[in-house]
Amino acid sequence: MAKLSSTKKMQAMVRGEHNLDGLPIHLLTLGAEIGSVLLESRTLPETLQVCAETIAHYLDATNVCIWTFDEQTNLLNLAAFAGEKIYTASITKSTLLPSLELEEIKPKLIPVTYQVAPFKYRLYCLIVENHLLGAIALFGKQSLREAEDILLSWVANHIALGIDRIFAKKALCDRRDSLLLHLASQLRQSLDFNTILETALQEVHKLLKIDRCHFLWYFPNAIEPRITITHEVQNGSFPSLMGDFPAPQSNIILHQISNLEIMRIDEVATAFDLDEEIKQILTKFGITAQLLLPFKTHTGQYGAIVCSHCQGARPWSDSEVEFLQGVCEQVAVAIDQAEFYAQTRASALAAQTQAQHLSAVLYKLQQAQSQLVQQEKMSSLGQMIAGIAHEINNPVNFINGNLIHAEDYIKDLLELLDIYQECYPNAVPNIQNYIADIDLEFIREDLPKLLSSMQMGTERIRQIVLSLRNFSRLDEAEMKPVDIHEGIDSTLLILHNRLKASGHDPGVEIIKEYGNLPLVECYAGQLNQVFMNIIVNAIDALENQSPPRIIKIHTELISQPKMQGDRVLISITDNGSGMKEAVKNRLFDPFFTTKPVGKGTGLGLSISYQIIVEKHRGTIKCNSELGKGSEFAIEIPVSRNGISG
User: How far apart are CA 46 and CA 66, in angstroms?
Assistant: First the structure.
């Protein structure tokens, strides 16, 4: 008989075509049992241990050792043994195989024999596609016969394939577990429905290498129950399946989804237990194999991930189904999380809107309260000023009225004195001495001047009193036509003490550029309050300014079409340091101030804005640049019709 290779010899022996030295049937049983062990679902250590024990049981071997090779550490690690343990530690490939390289064993398996006294040592390398996976060593007192050697070569080959298959399965499971963890992490990071579903479909499509992957919703409580495909990932140029599918087209599928039943079809054409309705629907869309996994969210919504193949049969493994079940669980949790976030966000938005509304109401109440307080202060100040003006006015009028008579009396007395001096030129010594002591000539000359000065003083007091009364305007609570210039002058008169020069203070120069204005219908007292606030702020801005310090007040009439009515412009400008844009934008906000604590309330310009805009239907603007001073421009209608319109 021609010499056969070990594999062919084994095949012939199994078929009964080749029998060597009367080979016992137990060797065939050994091969069958090893094949059966490799087909069972066990862990790698369990599988190799059973293989070692089976080999030791059927062969006359003192020890059977099986190693697995770790490429990262370049070590052969003892994975299983039967009999006495000879090699228990990890050893390098070169130690166990001192003269064997992989290149030498590409064509076939070469058993290597070593003498390990008092045993004969037989080694079989476990190799798949030129990759060393491990080794099997048999220790015995007698050498193996040819048939046993052929059988063990066949066993080693199948154990190598079994190890490779277990490694591949473990790598696939590890990859799926890793992918599932990665997917769970990605889904947890996103709170957006579309992102969650797109991420899940892309990962499933990439891992399972399928033609189509869909996500669908089932709406059982809709007026017309239906399935809606909302997301898809697919290969090639397949037509899109996204859209609604009414219940009459998918009753069986709806039933399975509502019962959370998995639909697992390896091949549509040959599936004998497949409902004809489902087969027609799948065939219509060119689907040849399909796997559908439904799930239900905590809010009662039904969804499903659908994997479809369009090019022949596609067997779905249990591990793939388990993987997709894990994906569905993660998607359901992520959708619940996203819905909870959406509800929480909606509640937060509603609460925020309510808070903003309450904040706005509170702001208006605070503003109204501050304005009432300020108005009450101004009213009290006006009443006090009016009372002081009234009290001063009475004695001043009395003094001013009596000064006229006093002047006449003094003139008469001086004339009488002149007559005495003419009639009695030589007065007695006592009279002459007294005349010299009082300096009669100086009194005669200075007394008229004194009376004139007193009259000027009383007149000045009368003007001040008039200005105080004009500023307070207690008798003008209603809108009345007034002279705007008179109100500005009254304000300047009250602020005269802050404007005039004194000591080292050079004072502030006022430049008036008054235009020809008609009487303006307005709330005069409130308008004077606006002038007071703006001019005081201008004086404060010039306080640390080097000369010249200038405040320019400009007025003019702005002619408008008849429908709108004429308007008056009052511009108050200072040459101070100006202000930043951020400060200018908040200038009219209540309680906003750039002044030191205790010096400003932040209400003056806010109230001024309300008086001009709300009470007079006018405008007030601030134009300012840093280093170039500031201008407040006020425009108000001339007549009541302009205000009401």
Answer: 12
Q: Which two tokens stand for residue 471?
A: 């500023």
First to last CA, the chain: 124
Q: Are 539 and 506 in contact (CB under 8 A)?
A: no
For residue 592, give Cα distances in angstroms to 269, 351, 359, 582, 621.
80, 28, 17, 12, 16
> Tell me, what's the pLDDT at 485?
92
DSSP string, 49-77: HHHHHHHHHHS--SEEEEEEEETTTTEEE
Helices 440-472 & 484-494 angle (0-180, nearest 10): 120
Backbone angles phi, psi at 564, to 5 degrees: -95, -30
Inter-CA distances, 109 with 81, 99, 149, 153, 160, Å:
22, 15, 11, 7, 11
């925020």: which residue's tokens? 352
Secondary structure (H, E, C), 553-590: EEEEEECCCCCCCCEEEEEEEECCCCCCHHHHHCCCCC
| Residues contacting residue 347 through CB under 8 Å, at least 6 positions apart | none
Which of 47-61, 89-103, 223-237 is predicted with the least confidence, judged by mean pLDDT? Answer: 89-103
Higher per-residue confidence, 92 vs 112 = 92
How much is the pLDDT for 91?
Answer: 53
460 is written with which tokens? 């000045």
Count of Cβ atoms closer than 10 Å to residue 430 Cβ: 8
Structure tokens at 70: 């770790």
Run of H or E residues at 503: none
DSSP letters spanning 300-356: S-EEEEEEEE-SS--PPPHHHHHHHHHHHHHHHHHHHHHHHHHHHHHHHHHHHHHHH
Looking up tokens 């080693």 gives: 156
Model confidence over 116-142: pLDDT tens digits? 444 566 778 888 877 788 888 887 777
Q: Does position 89 have pLDDT exceeding 90, yes or no? A: no
